[in-house]
Amino acid sequence: GLPTGSVYLDTITPQFVADLNSLAMVGKHTIGSRPHRELASGLSTPVGFQASSDSAQLAVDAVRASAAPHAFLSVSKQGVAGIVETTGNRDCHAVLPVA
């Protein structure tokens, strides 16, 4: 097969497409978003957090936050809202810009 990855712009869609991806990305405009960090903590794939050109600290903070367990409101694959508990994702990394 062909490995694929996606940039997750929202926190609902990944529930329905995560099993199709071997890599997830969170863009530089959403790495400070708590829901995106919580989502990353529950994904079973590596997650890259894109750093901005002026600061890598947000990406580093996002990687650390996503490695921790979380509980948050989400949607199941059946479309039912509920509380999701995660164990954290140790496969997160920062993606640094190259000028």
TrEMBL record:
<keyword id="KW-0808">Transferase</keyword>
<comment type="pathway">
    <text>Metabolic intermediate biosynthesis; chorismate biosynthesis; chorismate from D-erythrose 4-phosphate and phosphoenolpyruvate: step 1/7.</text>
</comment>
<dbReference type="GO" id="GO:0005737">
    <property type="term" value="C:cytoplasm"/>
</dbReference>
<keyword id="KW-0028">Amino-acid biosynthesis</keyword>
<dbReference type="GO" id="GO:0009073">
    <property type="term" value="P:aromatic amino acid family biosynthetic process"/>
</dbReference>
<protein>
    <recommendedName>
        <fullName>3-deoxy-7-phosphoheptulonate synthase</fullName>
        <ecNumber>2.5.1.54</ecNumber>
    </recommendedName>
</protein>
<keyword id="KW-0057">Aromatic amino acid biosynthesis</keyword>
<comment type="similarity">
    <text>Belongs to the class-I DAHP synthase family.</text>
</comment>
<dbReference type="InterPro" id="IPR006219">
    <property type="entry name" value="DAHP_synth_1"/>
</dbReference>
<dbReference type="GO" id="GO:0003849">
    <property type="term" value="F:3-deoxy-7-phosphoheptulonate synthase activity"/>
</dbReference>
<dbReference type="Pfam" id="PF00793">
    <property type="entry name" value="DAHP_synth_1"/>
</dbReference>
<dbReference type="InterPro" id="IPR013785">
    <property type="entry name" value="Aldolase_TIM"/>
</dbReference>
<dbReference type="GO" id="GO:0008652">
    <property type="term" value="P:amino acid biosynthetic process"/>
</dbReference>
<feature type="domain" description="DAHP synthetase I/KDSA">
    <location>
        <begin position="1"/>
        <end position="95"/>
    </location>
</feature>
<comment type="function">
    <text>Stereospecific condensation of phosphoenolpyruvate (PEP) and D-erythrose-4-phosphate (E4P) giving rise to 3-deoxy-D-arabino-heptulosonate-7-phosphate (DAHP).</text>
</comment>
<dbReference type="InterPro" id="IPR006218">
    <property type="entry name" value="DAHP1/KDSA"/>
</dbReference>
